[in-house]
Structure formats: C-alpha cells, structure tokens
C-alpha cells in the first residue's frame, strides 16, 4: 500500500520513515499502514503481557499525572469514566480509594457498552489513544460523552521534530497504530469542539 488516508482527518498521507507508517499533511498524525495491523487475538494477548498490578506503587506513580489532575480539578461527587481501563484499572483504583466514583470501559476486558451512553464530568484514558484504529469515531464519542466543563484527560507519548522516529521505542509496539503530534491534538480540539487544550509532557487534557 503506497498511500492511505489519515484515519483521523481523512486527508492524504505520505510514507514516513518506514513502509509501515504514513504522516498526514493536514493534522500531522503518524499512522500505521493497515496491512501491518496485528490480529485482534494478537492484540489482546499483547495487552495481557503487560501484567500490571493496581497495587504496584510504581504503576500508580506512572499514572499520577492523570490521577493528580482529577484529584485537583474535580470533587468526588463528579462522575468519571476510565476509558480503555485494561487488565488492571489502576487509575480507577487510586481515585476510588480517594472516594471518587469511576466506571471502567474497555473493548476487550470490560466491554460494558451501556456506559458509553452516559455522560461524565471527566474521562481518563492512559496509554490508550495510540491504539485507536478509528480515532475519528473514538474522539467524536469521547467528546459526546462529556458534560459541559468536563475534561478528557489522556496520557500518550507525542512525536515532535526532535524524535528519532526510526529508532523510537514507542512506534515499535505492534498495537500502536496512531502517533500524535502537538498539531494533531490541536486539530482534535478544534474539529470536535473542545474549548481548550493543555499539553504537559505526556499529559494531554481536552476541555469540553
């Protein structure tokens, strides 16, 4: 496949660095060639390999940019969703231990689709958005689920001009199919109607 339109903004992309990836000339997203996607079973097995533990202090520290943001910006009476909660929903664990009510949704490990019809004051998504096969539909859904003055709080590793993409560990994960640039986040904020965005290293916050 010599060309493939961007799965986020549908604009034309061109090959980037290796035959496995394209880069979008519109939103600056970097996306994997679909012929290099792994099977659903292989993807699930890959996630099971992570072997995370919600009581692991190191794991709790890793997600602390998200949990600290929620604890600072939202009170326990606000509703939350852990989107892509995985095999070990550590964010939910930390917040629930602080008296917060958080639901968990994961298409493979907690596929409670009824939760996607509800509204939330905040949605957390840690190391998830780079796995989106259809980011256009996913971000439309996430924005739709937020209450006014809500926030989508994500963690991912953004690409920038200083990234040595060819040798970058992040693109080597076979389940990572869409890599974001700061400009990509701006596109998402503008296109889906988020009123503001904040980026602090791996932490990305989009406010409704």
From TrEMBL:
In alphabetical order, the GO MF annotations are:
methyltransferase activity
Q: Which UniProt keywords are present, listed alphabetically? A: Methyltransferase, Transferase
Mind telling me which InterPro entries this protein's record contains?
SAM-dependent_MTases_sf
Q: Where does the signal sequence lie?
A: none
Pfam families reported for this sequence:
Methyltransf_23
Matching entries from Gene3D superfamilies are given as: Vaccinia Virus protein VP39 (3.40.50.150)
Keyword tRNA processing among record annotations: no
The Gene Ontology biological process terms listed for this entry are: methylation
Keyword Transferase listed = yes
Name recorded for this polypeptide: 2-polyprenyl-3-methyl-5-hydroxy-6-metoxy-1, 4-benzoquinolmethylase
- The organism named in the record is Desulfamplus magnetovallimortis
């Amino acid at each position: 496949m010599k060309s493939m339109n961007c799965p986020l903004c549908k604009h034309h992309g061109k090959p980037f660095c290796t035959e496995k990836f394209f880069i979008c000339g519109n939103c600056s997203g970097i996306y994997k060639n679909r012929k290099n996607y792994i099977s659903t079973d292989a993807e699930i097995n890959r996630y099971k390999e992570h072997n995370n533990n919600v009581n692991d202090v190191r794991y709790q520290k890793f997600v602390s940019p998200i949990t600290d943001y929620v604890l600072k910006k939202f009170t326990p009476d606000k509703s939350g969703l852990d989107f892509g909660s995985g095999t070990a929903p550590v964010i939910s664990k930390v917040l629930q231990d602080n008296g917060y009510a958080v639901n968990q949704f994961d298409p493979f490990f907690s596929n409670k689709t009824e939760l996607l019809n509800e509204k939330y004051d905040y949605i957390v998504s840690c190391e998830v958005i780079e796995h989106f096969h259809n980011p256009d539909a996913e971000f439309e859904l996430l924005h739709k689920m937020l209450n006014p003055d809500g926030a989508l709080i994500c963690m991912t590793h953004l690409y920038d001009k200083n990234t040595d993409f060819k040798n970058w560990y992040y693109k080597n994960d076979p389940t990572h199919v869409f890599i974001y640039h700061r400009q990509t986040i701006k596109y998402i904020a503008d296109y889906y109607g988020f009123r503001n965005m904040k980026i602090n290293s791996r932490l990305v916050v989009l406010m409704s």
